[in-house]
Each structure stands twice: as structure tokens, then as C-alpha cells.
Amino acid sequence: MDNLECWSGLASGGITAVPGFKVSGVHCGIRKNRDKRDLALILADKQCNAAAVYTTNKVKGAPLILTMEHLKNGKARAILCNSGNANTCAPNGLSAAEKMVNAVANELKIEPADIIVNSTGVIGVQLPIENIVAGVPELVKALSRDNTPAAEAIMTTDTFSKSWAAEFELGGKTVTIGGIAKGSGMINPNMATMLSFLATDCDISSEMLQKALSQSVKISYNQVSVDGDTSTNDMTAILASGTAENPTIDSAGEDYDKFLHVLNLINLRLAKDIARDGEGATKLLICKMNGAESYESAALLAKSVISSSLVKAAMFGSDANWGRILCAMGYSGVHFDNARVDVGFSSNTGEILVCKQSTGLSFDEEEAKKILGEKEITIDVSLCDGDFSAEAYGCDLTYDYVRINGDYRT
Amino acid sequence: MDNLECWSGLASGGITAVPGFKVSGVHCGIRKNRDKRDLALILADKQCNAAAVYTTNKVKGAPLILTMEHLKNGKARAILCNSGNANTCAPNGLSAAEKMVNAVANELKIEPADIIVNSTGVIGVQLPIENIVAGVPELVKALSRDNTPAAEAIMTTDTFSKSWAAEFELGGKTVTIGGIAKGSGMINPNMATMLSFLATDCDISSEMLQKALSQSVKISYNQVSVDGDTSTNDMTAILASGTAENPTIDSAGEDYDKFLHVLNLINLRLAKDIARDGEGATKLLICKMNGAESYESAALLAKSVISSSLVKAAMFGSDANWGRILCAMGYSGVHFDNARVDVGFSSNTGEILVCKQSTGLSFDEEEAKKILGEKEITIDVSLCDGDFSAEAYGCDLTYDYVRINGDYRT
Asked: Which of B60, B359, B365 has the CB atom closest to A90's CB atom?
């Protein structure tokens, strides 16, 4: 996966880097702060092949239920999303989701079933549907080729908007993929919801699009942990318009692999941005797990390390407390040779090995502290079980995480 | 299980409430602070039937490996434990564990295989075995019927020692069970290890003792979560001397049930003390899950709620943020009817229902805040899936948790 990072085609354009897509983001009155956009729309010039991956949480937001219904035919033309209210465990949630979709469908003169919908924010509170319906004309009127308003409108307590795009060649044609995402946090904190919306002009069947998205989510968003809480409203969705006129991807092969490769690249960058911007985070943590007996083992082990509150707090304190890393691996449920584990830390400042063959090395604590003082830290773990590797992405556990999530909602 | 709490026989005596047991605790020089005892010994007048339950972490401390070997015959006479160093992932760990056991066996003139041993503290650092061996004569000399020194010597960053005992009748004979425990935290923080050591004069076979201990651990210690990190050194062990001369318990039946009932009572109190004294905790959280389709479902759901960082942070902030509770249930992996969940909060101040049939109620936020401002909070969840209930025990997530675990080790 490392070579992805070196690929030079990555740009920050987001959805509108893709020809044939317009977006908008407005304030319609769900959020109290009038300067905060709270309603986003992504629209393709034509109906697209579409795919989505949803939260595994058994309690699912009403808009996810509606979107699953709409995507049964693998087609969609628009993505609609509000922030400030999750429309989950709220009275008449499904009916509210339908109303916001219908308002946009009427205004755009498209089928309601061609709209993917989601909501992010506080749960258990009725959606102010009148405000949304009243805001739809302005939302549609504001559609443009400027990516920013939509990227901002889906943000909750994110401290920066997250957009990436890339161009590549397929069968002599230029294909573009672009995406926006939001991470964890809310002004009225309730839960950390991860959303990402992607667009491409690639000609790819709904089936292969779904396959690519599912594969890509596995190595990117599913390897992110901010606090271990899986939201009721997590969703990744992608629209593929096909206007790039590349040879249609309708089966596995070289073109599919190339598409997946670039999709992974974008999703990994969005996923890392989500981790980096986790609630209260001061550091991005990357755990690289090498020498595992399978990808699944490597992925679970890396995720367990990145999810440990004790590891996260140690990283906040720049403490090379590697015992917690072995401990988190030990309770992951994964089999590994626990007598042959090497652990090191690296960052821009340098790298240091602190544990060899599962036994502590004496190391320069000051040097370790300097390495761990950086904003992006890699925890390097090597096993002796096989040739598989995986990465997971997280952030440190800080006073601000407690402050943000412990503060009273009102 | 509720009636256990009403039972009046509970006392704070600990191990030495049981006739025929002596304990001691000394400072031998593992900890830097000379006022902190760091070596504990529990000794029975005679060889006992013995049982233990160990951490499920695949990385296990060396003393646990040795204890498993020693307990193969279901017999033991003493429990030896140091704090300040976990003797895990450290050079020559098994040999160090053997050395400390042999030193005590020689001094007491008992078999090394009759000693249960454990260590708690920093991992990856060589055990200062010379200090321990040098301290053994004093440790043995200090054996007495005063429970306190041993209860204190196993503490790490615990803010109070944890001891409970109870007397009951079996076949006209008075039987006593007593125990001590330690929870989460260290002065040189490395990981939260849970230990509990129990003694009884009950006449019970090793097999039934193991069965009772395993059953009891399931509803008590296994339902505690401080930070979701399962230590490498967790252990519960029990010695049963048989000197109470009750009719031997060697099969299931009324006497076994009575023994288990009192054992549960003590383990539940120790478990709650561990949760209450979690690192940085200001509040004990109890989640009662009612109306589940099985005990296992109820237990997993309650544990998922109590383990959620977002729930824990909300409780710290006295925020009745019930959406996070449904969310944590949703990602627990347990099947339940997620449209029919009621959620309430209660404490000494009162009780309040905030969610009915999975939909938010409008409630008095000030009243809720008052209820959640207490030191012991119950999260009451009712399902409509069956008649099974379970409880789980945890604590809030506070600035102090981050401080304790983020501070540099030196």
C-alpha cells in the first residue's frame, strides 16, 4: 500500500474535481450558529451507478434505512446530507427523511429514489423538517463547481474540511475520483459519525462499484478508530457517472485494479484526515503491523493497538510505553507468536526500537520522547508469523476529548 | 442478584476474617517509595484446595504461567504477590518468578508447587529479584491476623484498599469467605491490572471450587470495565482450607448454591470497588440491562454501554446523553429489538426516564443533571426481548484518567 502514498496525482479538489458534478452547502437553520452551513447537496448531471457502505451498528439512523431502499437498483443522481441532527431514535424519523428527500426531488425534478440521504448530529431529537424544506430552494440555487460549501456543510466539530481527488488514465481516457468526508465531533456532542461521499466519472457497473467501495472501506475507514464508538449513521457512498467514456469496468481485471488503487488512495487520505482531526486529538497515530499470518490478523492487531485508551493516552504524553502495545495485541483475539514481537516508534524526528523478541530493550528515553513529540507518529510492530501487513489510523486521547464529550449538551 | 445486596452478613474483614489464614505485606524495595508496601503473602495453616481464573490476554505474565503449572493438582497453601513490576515481557521472567517462589518456600518450609504467585506493575522491566529474596524473611516474620498490610501491598494507584468478607452456615457449621482485590492504576503507569485473592475455610473439592470461582468471575470481575484494556496479569485465586468441617461440597446442590451465592456477593462488592476506584474516576457507573433474551445478551449489552468512552465522558459531565447508550448497544454485536428500548438514570437523588420505545422523551434537564451529579449512578435499560437481566460496572472518563496515563513514566 505504501506506493500509493508516493503517487503524485493526488489533489485537494474534492467532488467538483470530477467533471459533471455540482455541489452546494447552505445554512437552513438546523444549527443555531448562522455562520455554520448545515445542509449539503451533491448532484450529477445524469443518473449514475451508485454504491454505499453503511454502519454495522444495529441501531441505524432513519436516513440510512431510506437510502438502502433507494439504492436497491444500484442507481442514484444526488446525495443530500444535513448536519446538526442525526434523525436517529427521533419521532417520525423515516417520514422526516422522506420529506427532505421529496423537497429536493421536487425542486430538482428528479426521482426521490435517485437521492442518497444522510443526517449527522444529535440523536433522539426531532428533525426540524420545516427549516430544511424551506432551505431547499436556496440549496438547489447554490449548486456550483465550488467544492467547499458542501465539504463544510457536513462538518460537525471537525476543525478542518476534508477533500481529496485524483486523476488517472483508463484505456486512454482521463478518469477522476473525488471525495469529501467528515470525522468525529459535534458542537452539541452526541456521537462521532464518519461520513464520506465520493464521485467519479468512471464508467463502471454498479456491481463492480459496490465491490470496489466495500474493499476500499475495509482498508481505510474501517481501520480508523477515534474512540471505539461505532456511530448509528456512518456511511460512505459513491456516484459513478460514466462520462469519462473509458472501457466499461464490469468485471475484475487491470482496469478494475487501477480504479480500486486510486479509490484506496483517496479513501486512505480521507481516513487519515479523519483520524488526525479526531475529537481533541493533537497527534495522528499510524500503527503498521508487519509479518502477520494473514491480512485479517494484521488489520485486527493494528486496530486493537490504535484503539487502546492506554496506548492513546501514552502517545498524548509522548511516553514510549510499549508494554501497552503488546497488551492490546494480546487481547485482540488474534493468534500470533507473542514471544517474537519487535516494537519501534518513528516520526519525522527519527526512529527507535524499544522491544525486540517481546523483551524490553534499554533505550534513550529522551530520544524516544522527542520522536513521540511530533504531530504524526508511527508505531511499527513486526511479527514473525508470515508476510502480511496492515495499517490502522487513530489519534491520541487528550484532556480535550474529555472536555468535548463531557461538557453538558446545552 | 439484587437480593444479594440486601444480605446483612457482609463485613470488611478480608482474608483474615477466615480462621486459619495469616497474611503479611512489606516494603522490599521494588517500589521507590519506602512507605509503599510492595510484597504480599497469604498463608493457610494447611494445604488447601485451590482454584484460579486467569487473564484471557494471549500475552501472559511469567508468574501466571508458573501458577498454572502449580495449580495442576488443584492444591496450594500460599499466595505471593508483588506490586511495582509485572514480570511480563522481561528478561528471564519465568526464572525470576521461580526464584521468588523458592525463597518463600524455603523460608516457610513448604513445597514451591504449593505457592500461587503473581506480579503487578510496569512491564518489560527486569524484576529486582535480589530485593525480593532479601525481603522474604521479613515478609514471613510479619505474618499475622491483620488483613491490612497484604491488602495494601498489592495496591498500585488504587486510592483505597479493597477487602470484604462474609460468614454463613452450611450443615450447622459456620463458614467464612474473605477476599482482597486491587484495581486499575500505577504510580509508574503501565497498565491496569485486576487482582483478587480469596480464602475460605469451607470444605469444598478443588473441582467445585474451580466451578464456583469461574461462575462468580463471570458476573463480577468480567463485568467490570475501566478502560477496556485487558491486562497481561489479571488473576483471581481462592484457597479453601476445609477446616470449617461443613459437609464436603463435592457436587452441585443446595450447599454449593449457598457457597456460590456468598462468593458472588463478595466478588461483586470487590468488583464494584475496583470500578469505583478506576483510574481518575469520580463516579461508579452501574448499567442494569433488563428484559434481554438471555443472560449472555444482557451481560454483553450492559458491558458495551459501560465500556463506551462517549458514555463514560457524558457521565463525567453529568450529561443525560442517552443516544450514546443506544449506540453502544447497537455496536455490541448482540441481537435485540432496537425499536423497543427504554432508558433511564437513577441515583440517590432520584430517577428519570429519558427514552421510551427507542424515542427520546422531553425531560427536565436540570433534574437529570442533579441525578447524574451523584457518586454512584445507575443506567437503567429495559428491553422487550425476554426475562433475563445482567449488570456491568464501570466509571466515568475524566481529565485525571488522561493525566494518569499520559504522564511520562519517569
From this structure: B359
